[in-house]
What does this fold into?
Amino acid sequence: MARKPETDAATGVATTGHEWDGIRELDTPMPSWWLYTFYATIAFALAWVVLYPALPFVRGVLGADTRRQLAETMATERAKAEPILARLRAATPEAIAADPELRTHALAGGRIAFATSCAGCHGAGGQGAPGGFPSLADDDWIYGGSFDDIRTTISHGVRNGEDAEARGTAMPAFAQAGLTMAQIGDVAEHVLSLSGTGPANAAGATLFAENCAACHGDRGEGNRQVGAPRLDDRIWLYGGDKASVTRTIAYSRAGVMPAWQGRLDPAVINMLTVYVHALGGGEQ
It folds into this structure.
């Protein structure tokens, strides 16, 4: 309910004429220091708009241009780095790893590039992650762990549909390729027995020989040429329990990795190759 403005007897301050539940609102003026500060900020904002590029397509009377300054700074830094980058582009990863100076630069630059482009899937330390993101810090490699193998994988990726040289072949979904779920369960038991984590299964061994050994090997030793992982160790991309192995056999898996060739400078790909090789599982 609004009332006619009047002066509050207790404070001597005029009211606004508003009242709620018997409480009247005082029309107390703002403190002078607050008003002066507020006016100063308005004046500062106006001066900034005139002096600096605060509005689209307005450079300001001082001619300051932070975008241009950033571009110039980046160009300067690229020019400083270009001599070492040129050497990193021209050298093979093996030669980089053998040269103390180049190796130092490669490990430093590779660490940064890995954190930016790879750690989201493979983990900050290359430890991998559940769901098909392999560890890069052990000695279990799907496509090989030599410098050349690693560089090829980084450059072309895996099953990405964008690079004709991408790694990876398709594993059949055996639930749709003629095996019953009972047979798939037998194969899963045999697969687990290869690494000593499950009981032997004669029927599964026969089915494995007929359907799986061509890629994974008679003993589950794997085949890097086609990207068929080892099954005789206890390292699993999608889980090593019977349910996970059964699902893999029945419905297949198809991990994807982008092709970094064309996205990253060849020098950066070489640095990443040396860095990944040095994580702990690299091969000669």
Observations:
- The two ends are 87 Å apart (CA to CA).
- The first strand starts at residue 15 and ends at 20.
- The mean pLDDT is 92.
